[in-house]
Amino acid sequence: MPFDVQDLSGTFSVGDIAVALSLSFVLSATIGWVYRFTHRNVSYSQSYVQTLVILGMLIALIMLVVGSNIARAFALVGALSVVRFRNAIKETRDVGFIFLVMGVGMAAGTRFYTLAVVATVAICLIITVMYRFNWFALNVQRQVVKVQVPPDGDHVEGIRAVLIRLTSEFELVSMESVRGGALTELMYTVRLAKGKEPADLIAELSGRTAGQRVTVLTGYDQTDL
Description:
The protein is of the alpha+beta class. It has helices spanning 5-9, 14-38, 46-66, 70-80, 92-109, 113-132, 155-166, 198-206, and strands at 143-149, 167-178, 183-192, 214-218.
């Protein structure tokens, strides 16, 4: 008896499998290259990009398996519900790329090939344009200042005096006791005054902290840690 995939499933042929998986691979790889090209921060992960490609093909495969069978769809949901993902997504933008490859995989798996291609090209073009022209950027650089001071004395007022002199704006974010109450840790967000550098701020604050640690973190709103 001849072996025929179409006879076994009644929903797709060998050609459908080849086209859906090949197209989802090409489009997911294209999305992966766009992600790599437009990535700005330090935590680039090759594994994440490879997962995007695998996910696109996997979603296409799932859509082929499910087809229009409602019972099969519910069975698949139950099977996938046991999967737990522990990796944290460091950038909200990464979630968008996950949904993008899922959408492309769904379109390819349900044989909406033109939709998959057009959506990939259009959305990738928009992502590239936003990256190229730096849309929605806030051109205000702020710093995070963390200092530790003894709990006694007027160290806090001395730090405020330095911030008033060297910054155009500042805000106390947190104050907590550390090292069993031996020190008080203060954290501020600041915007340096024109012509001032982080080194100037560190030098001035070091003279007001009784020799305790001073940390100035710059670019915290553009860099993921």
